Amino acid sequence: MDDKREAGLELDPKFDAAGLITAVVTDAGSGAVLMVAHMDAEALAATYATGEAHFWSRSRQRLWKKGESSGNVLKVIEMRIDCDQDAVWVIAEPAGPACHTGEASCFYRRIAGDRLERL
Amino acid sequence: MDDKREAGLELDPKFDAAGLITAVVTDAGSGAVLMVAHMDAEALAATYATGEAHFWSRSRQRLWKKGESSGNVLKVIEMRIDCDQDAVWVIAEPAGPACHTGEASCFYRRIAGDRLERL
Known about the structure:
Largest sheet of chain A: 4 strands, mixed
Distance between the termini of chain A: 40 Å
Helix content of chain A: 10-25%
CATH superfamily of chain A: Phosphoribosyl-AMP cyclohydrolase
Largest interface: A-B, 42 and 42 residues
Number of helices of chain A: 2
Shape of chain A: globular
Number of strands of chain A: 8
CATH topology of chain A: Ubiquitin-like (UB roll)
CATH class of chain A: Alpha Beta
Number of domains of chain A: 1
Structural class of chain A: mainly beta
Strand order of the largest sheet of chain A: 2-1-6-5
Oligomer: homodimer
Order of helices and strands of chain A: HEEHEEEEEE
């Protein structure tokens, strides 16, 4: 166990080989998980500094402010990091649907065997 | 947009190059994010079939039932999948602390600039 990283009080994100950590965003009001995405060091810093969630877009290979085109920004209420510092939990107030499909959350389907059910 | 995967009702997980998808576990009671880990196809199937959360341990390179040694299993209430099917949200009832540090959640520290604050 990496004691300093796991029990210390210094921010020391453990980025993967691609320079990313996982970011989970939940709705501060409902508690629902809104989306899961990735942050590089710049996105993590921008999220903290601006109070709006930023990610690294793996498909576009660039910094991406959530809502930059849709307007559906995620206002950051609090950021937490997990024990081994390779995942961030962003508690946020969404300005609109978090999912590009128009759903409030990207997790709008329940697993039912080999099938999915809309919530 | 991959319409079938993103809007369809067929379970079709998009595993990464290592055969994994991200799994986020929240506490069915408090709504807190308990942990973030990874599932391969076998872990995903075992989680659904047994009603207890299983993951792929990247450090041990094997299937891992959460709580197999500690007893702190995660009883699955519901499983959801996100729009592009590369992340799963497991809503669970934890039998005990979810974190190996003994904390209820792995996310027990808040980010405050370059520092962390215990909750």
